[in-house]
Fold this sequence. Notes:
This protein is mainly alpha-helical. It has one domain (2-38, 47-86). It is built from four helices and no strands. The protein is elongated and about 105 Å long. The termini are far apart.
Amino acid sequence: MKKNIFITVLLFIVTVAFSQKSQRIAYIDMDYILDNIPEYIEAQNALNAKVEKWKNKLDKEARKIEVLKTDLSNEKAIFTKEVIEER
């Protein structure tokens, strides 16, 4: 009986000792790693090109909408409510 208790206490102490080990903390510079991978650079450039295309398309659409708004506000006095709602 004493032997079982001794083994249990010993296992508990060993377990606690291993869990109290200091943790290792590392710093990884992902920017450095990714900057040195050519595939990542190519993918980033392709993504940036797509983003620029999308921004240009959105700007064109926004300008079209602004032109339509100004045209509608200029012609608002001429049109009836039904025509204004249709536009």
